[in-house]
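In this section we walk through a basic example: taking a raw amino acid sequence and producing a predicted 3D structure, encoded as discrete structure tokens. The instruction is simple. Fold the sequence below.
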Amino acid sequence: MNAQWQDIARTTLEGSESGALTFPASLEMLMDAGFDAYAVDLRRATRTYYMHDGQSIELTTEPTSTPVGERFDVEVVREQIREAVELRPGYSYPGFCARIAQAGCAGYLVSLLGKRVLYYGRTGETHTEYFPGTQPGGRP
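The resulting token sequence is shown next.
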């Protein structure tokens, strides 16, 4: 992976954790640079970025303040996603990660190519969230 890609990956991670970059701004930077996806592992505190040619970079993230819950509560995860999308007062990415972890989310995969995020629980439950305006069948 070239140095520019590594810099962009680090910038988007640091920007997310500090609040300097919104999720849409991070996505735009990553797509413009040619990334295919990234995966966040809340148990290992890592974020892995993937390029189209198979190269990847794994970065250490701030650990969540709570362990991953046993039961995947998709309604809590959905509410936290809404809070993030709306940038509600008090929203922070570390807080988002802590709340979805507490709700049983072990991690998530952001597919830039598929324009969706796949959230998953400890026992394989999943929830797919599409980027705004990209839902199949024209759903809002």
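Looking at the output, two observations stand out. The chain is about 35% helix and 25% strand. The longest helix spans residues 3-18. In the next section we compare this with other chains.
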